[in-house]
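Subject: two folds for Thursday's group meeting

Dear M.,

Sorry for the delay on this. The cluster queue was jammed most of the week, so I only got both jobs back this morning. I'm pasting them in the order they finished. Each block is the input sequence followed by the predicted structure tokens. Could you check whether the formatting survives your parser before we put anything on slides? The first protein is the one we discussed after the seminar.
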Amino acid sequence: MKSRIVNCYDYKSLEVPEDLGRWHIPDSEIEEELLALAKDYSGEEEVEGEIGSGDCVRCICVKSSVESWEGRTVLLYPGRKLPGAEGAEEAVLGKKRGEEFDCSIKGLSLTLRVEKAVRIHVMQVGNELTGKLGIPGVKTVEDYYRFYHEQHDKERREKACMLIARYWLEEMSKRSEFDIDEEEKKKWCDDRARIMYEGLLAAGHDMKKTQDGEILTEEEALKRAAEGEEIYFIPYLMYCYFSEKDGFVLTEEGFVKEVERIAKERGEKTEDLMKQADITMFRQTKYQEHTYHLLMADAEKYLEV
């Protein structure tokens, strides 16, 4: 490419913000996860014996001082002391399904029959919960903490390294010196816009129709898409710089081999995949991956211990 980095700013001279290096999983996160699991394992069961505080009781009114109430369903929640139903909540305690009892609700004298009672089972965070999870080697809460770290620590470290690498790239894009060939840049953006336009059109999305209902000509749609690609040109130059400096170069031959490999994995024909592929887009993806790989390796030393 004619466009290039003339002087790449030394990212190692930058002071990495402390918060970017934080990756340790706090106990509070694991506690929240266990609480959520406890809710999932909580449930309800029908009460066969005596009704207790905290149960939900469905009754049928068999007799009332107001005739229209007879046959109505009445729900009681003993222990909640709902206004006007306190006496009925007390009266239903100790009763069983099918038994009748007298009570009053908001001044009405009623005789109710217990039809059904449900007891909410609230699972507490503890070894009973972790033992029910069915995770190999996890029987206690302490085991779950270990398991959670095994599952997520590596991912969190990588995420922190990626954030540091992104910070370095953003700063370098501001502080480095570039020699930009404007004609080359325009062609790069136009080519990407055309690839995007045709790809989306093949997928059933017409870029000429905007989200706000505006209808563009093909030329206008391509121009707008090309303008949107400009912000990716400098990052692309940086990906090329770091990759090529490390000896990682994707040639036409390498591109074809990579497409052949992907086609084989997908069970597709190489010639069909080649029609969809573009070496510029493909090279950017590979160079970006390689650049992040390099910078993330350096970022490891900036992570909290």
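Second protein, same layout:
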Amino acid sequence: MKTKILILITALALLTGAASAEKKFLVDATFYDNESAKINNVKILDATRTTALRHVGANFSIKALSTDKKTEIDGKVPISFTNHVRTSEGGYETEKEEIQKNLFLEYQKNITEIKIFYEDEEKASYNLKDNLCCDFDNTCTSYCDGKEVDVDCTCGDEICQKSTNEQELCPEDCSQPESSENTESSTEDQTKEVVDSDYSNYLLIAIVIAAVLIGLFLLSGKVKIEA
């Protein structure tokens, strides 16, 4: 009975964890006690945890910026280079020279850059567009889609995007020099020309009919007068 209850509790815990998992930025960073830092990698994944950004010991902070340089996430990195070791005699402290830490940040599609600061001085920067949206890797993630920075998201849509230099990178989309807007404009012009041409033809026919009717009317009057 106890075994069944334990299995049930475990299953419920797994289901609860899976249900609450959300997209997060996983920032793999290294911090040094000489006040420097570097961002090794950033991934987008599903996770249940979010790092609590709070001051612990070192004065490092992390910021996530949007396209317009607006700060979307800002907080202290919870690290300390002092390690407290407890012993039966009371314990002692050791100092670390570097700390590798994974930070889970809330995912926002408009975030394009992540920066690490020591106090107010920038120490590391990671551009998500440059690193996550790579041309010709046969991958178009939801993060890159719509940003027009990854050719894998736009090649093959039959639209020649100048912003991604598709003239050279995607010649199949740029076989015709006109862009989609020019094509639409050209179609509208052709339609207008057809309408104008039809109107001219109708006007000419109306003039001919009017001329014939006037001619018949005058001819009719002349016949009566001669009679």
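Two things I noticed about the second structure. The chain has five helices and nine strands. Strands lie at 22-32, 37-47, 60-66, 71-76, 82-85, 92-95, 98-106, 111-118, 121-127.

Cheers,
T.
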